[in-house]
Amino acid sequence: xxxxxxxxxxxFLVHCNEAKSELPLLIQGSLDVSERDWEQDGSFSLKGDAExxxxxxxSHSDFIPSGKGKPAAIEEKDIIYKYIPAVWNGxxxxxxxxxxxxxGSYRLKIKFxxxxxxxxxxxxxxxxxAYRLFxxxxxxxxxxxxxxxxxxxxxxxxxxxxxxxxxxxxxELIFHVSNFHHRVGGLRYDIRLGTEEKILFExxxxxxxxxxxxxxxxxxxxxxxxxxxxxxxSPAPLYFxxxxxxxxxYSIITGERLFYYYFxxxxxxxxxxxxxxxxxxxxxxxxxxxxxxxxKDVNTKYLPIAQSINVLNCGFAFFTLFSEPVVFTExxxxxxxxRIATGIYIISNxxxxxxxxxxxxxxxxxxxxxxxxxxxxxxxxxxxxxxxxRLAKYGLTVMILLQAIMIAKVFxxxxxxxxxxxxxxxxxxxxxxxxVPREFLNLLEKKTILDINLGDHVQREMTxxxxxxxxxxxxSEKMSPSENFHFLNSYLNKIAPVIETNKxxxxxxxGDAIMGxxxxxxxxxxxxxxxxxxxxxxxxxxxxxxxxxxxxxGIGLHxxxxxxxxxxxxxxxxxxxxxxxxxxxxxxEGLTKYYGSNILISExxxxxxxxxxxxxxxxxxxxxxxxxxxSTFVIEVLDGYPEELQNRFxxxxxxxxxxxxxxxxxxxxxxxxxxxxxxESNPYDSACAFYLKRAEFYDKFGAPPEWDGIEVxxxx
Length: 716
Fold this sequence. Notes:
Layout: H1 2-19, E1 30-32, H2 38-41, E2 44-45, E3 48-54, E4 80-84, E5 92-93, E6 96-97, E7 102-111, E8 119-124, E9 130-135, E10 138-143, E11 160-165, E12 170-179, E13 191-195, H3 196-230, H4 236-253, H5 258-262, H6 269-294, H7 303-321, H8 325-328, H9 332-355, H10 361-382, H11 392-433, H12 438-443, E14 457-469, H13 472-476, H14 481-501, E15 505-510, E16 513-518, H15 522-545, E17 553-569, E18 572-578, H16 580-595, E19 599-602, H17 603-608, E20 617-625, E21 632-637, H18 643-651, H19 653-664, H20 668-681, H21 686-701, E22 711-713
Parallel strand pairs: 1-7, 17-19, 20-22
Antiparallel strand pairs: 2-13, 3-4, 3-7, 5-6, 7-12, 8-11, 8-13, 9-10, 9-12, 14-16, 14-17, 15-16, 17-18, 19-21, 20-21
Helix pairs in contact: 1-11, 3-4, 3-11, 4-6, 6-7, 6-9, 7-9, 9-10, 10-11, 14-15, 19-20, 20-21
């Protein structure tokens, strides 16, 4: 807000400084500046009554009597005085009011102090017509082509500078002006006189201010385009960006008309005027569109009024595009009415929004009131009702600055809100991650749980881990419900981190059982299994010290292709894994009950290991589990036992393997000797005890005729 007031103060300070020296007035075509201090007072505008000659192109010689006693061609009785700067429309000559189309001459004399020797300059604003300037009978400036008809004249739109050095105490200025292309005619706009240094300084200062405004318009337009590009929820930023671009081009072709200094012949006078008024219409259209979109949630009742104003503005823009200036300038009052209607519509709505305590309405209203006042000033100046500097570009700048302040305020508020929402979302995501593993989202290539849709899935090879507490039912019967939950959570708090440390994640908790997935390598799953068993043995020591029975956990691993995705319906879904590999991993874990093993893996998992020799294993059996039509080799992992017990397994591994081979070859009696030898050395070898029992049974009663060494397990 302070920036806007600082800018306004600068603008008015500039204009006040210019107005301080605007004291001399033309009186009956004569201007006396002989007492003026040019260094201190600076430049000033030529204002007052100049001699005016309608439908005459007078010359310097017309005012000099002939040497033969004849009077001058122009006598005092022929002189009419006309105030400048102003339009000549409606000036009464011989009882008739003259029209805007026509031609004529202005004459004035300037009296300098005798002996003044200074570099002086005239700064002539664009008059929107064609004119010639003669100084003491010499043509010094020509803008466009002066003519006595529409066909013979050509207007121009460039401001002009004429520098000169004072020679005489009196200077005569004659302007030839013709207008057949605009609704109004005459010397309409400012003509300033001052030292060349002051005039050039004023131009440079004005150029710098306008260049600053152009840069501001351009940057803010890019900013709003970027907002729209990255957030297309509302077209309001797009409308405001186009509005800024329209203001930028309008400022370039008006004011100091920088465009014409660098590209004087690029577009004709007619096209420049068309573009100026089309841009005025577009400025109104896009600003009103921005306003209605900004407040669309509370502005629906009177929206048809805004739409009608925009349609009329667009209609006038098309009318301007396809008609000549001599035609469309006759209807500029219609455009003025539309601008006033736009201002009234916006102001009345903002007053209502303020009563509803709508955020930003007060600041918006201040900007609109200022720009509305500037627009009224420019309309009256353009119609030569008043003669003040054009302020539209400053009003638009203030409006854009206020809009930037409002955006900064909204952005800050939204940023703080986004921080709070981000913190809440982070907490929510952490809460959801307790139910939906982060790895599950990563595998589905989703950033957050919000991105997951029903039916999302991915197919890839993974290693599946199943673990289960042996005899948990009998164990849980000895505990209360709360003790059950406390026990399970205590147990799982020890197991889950081991899986996560080895690059796996828990897909499901199944009571006392766990289903874990390892997307990368089978080694990760096996290392996790070994670590779990070691953790269980450590946990059992503390349980035994507390007088509690130790736990025994069986783990089964299988590696294969699976489909991981979401199932359910739109209101309730969950992540799951669909694959025969999951079934086989579960069955292998179930086999640990029969063989009394800690860790069993499938042959697929064994072959997927990077270095199988790294682990201590033994071939346990060739089995066919429920739901499978083919058999699979099951391998027992001997790592994970306490060191002393593991050494016993390793010392007897060869005898076990010989006994196992004899058993498969139906040499049951011979295999019994090896199995007994192993049991005597290691009574904890439950798998060997399992084989010994079966070998003794087959040795006594004989194996079934169709027996091929494959053990069939029909339990689920």
